[in-house]
Amino acid sequence: MENDGLILKNIFFKRQNKPILTNITVKIPWGRIVALLGENGVGKTTLLRIICDLNKGYHGVVNLNGVVDEKRKQFVSYSDSLEGFSKKSSLMKIIDFYELGYPDFDRQRAEKLLTFMQLDPEQRLGDLSKGSREKFVITLTLARKTKLYLLDEPLSGVDIFSRDKIISSLIKWIGPDAILIIATHHLNELEQIIDDVMILKDRRLLAYRDVEEIRVQEGLSVEEYYRQLYLEDRRQ
Ligand SMILES: Nc1ncnc2c1ncn2[C@@H]1O[C@H](COP(=O)(O)OP(=O)(O)OP(=O)(O)O)[C@@H](O)[C@H]1O
């Protein structure tokens, strides 16, 4: 079936005539948590932005639940950089804005997430530390009730205690059939919750693998597999 999850077909993307992504083809079924991996500058953010139609001018097809045009945008919750908001806006004001802007925004879930993240709704955006701002971005992203969640390096400034707490709770916030893709350089922390890895290298998709299959068939942890695959490919 062509509307079973997220399907990318032959995605090509150039910037200033330089190829960034070439021939990316993959099918991600519903209910998977996917770690998107690869070196700095390989195109992880670019791919996430193509999926939610923020990067225009790509070639190929992005099919989300059978929707291939820009209408898919409404089903994707993408971690926002919040650059568009005034530093003086309180977190509650931004939540109000999201509630107005997204019909699938679940205010109750947002408030529970705020408490879980130990964020004060009256605090101003500009007063948040780097880690607290990231916690707020995760809050806004996960507070929508939707099909596809994209988190781009969500925890780089978050302390290790909060990281563990957030990672182990990720599944509980999203529906069992949703897809969550997390671009990350901290694979080891996510190993316990991810179903699949998607590895980009040299503008292409090097591998898309089921994590359990890697452990059983290769006898390796996901991190070991990732390192081995990258180094092997470098030698070729
Ligand atoms: N706004 C932009 N203008 C021009 N080039 C850009 C822009 N944004 C990204 N690039 C280039 O596109 C390529 C892919 O960048 P991207 O941010 O997608 O990589 P990434 O895998 O997310 O990197 P990182 O792990 O460092 O976050 C890089 O070569 C980068 O320099």
Give a brief description.
This protein has 236 residues and is α/β, with parallel strands linked by helices. 35% of the residues lie in helices and 25% in strands. It has one domain (6-235): 3-Layer(aba) Sandwich (Rossmann fold).
Structure characterization notes:
By secondary structure, the protein is an alpha/beta fold. It has one domain (6-235): Rossmann fold (3-Layer(aba) Sandwich). The chain has 8 helices and 9 strands. The strands form 2 sheets. It has a 6-stranded mixed beta sheet, with helices on both faces. Strands 2-1-4 form a 3-stranded antiparallel beta sheet, covered by helices on one side. The mean pLDDT is 94. The structure holds adenosine-5'-triphosphate. Adenosine-5'-triphosphate binds next to helix 1. This is ABC transporter ATP-binding protein. GO terms for molecular function: ATP binding; ATP hydrolysis activity.
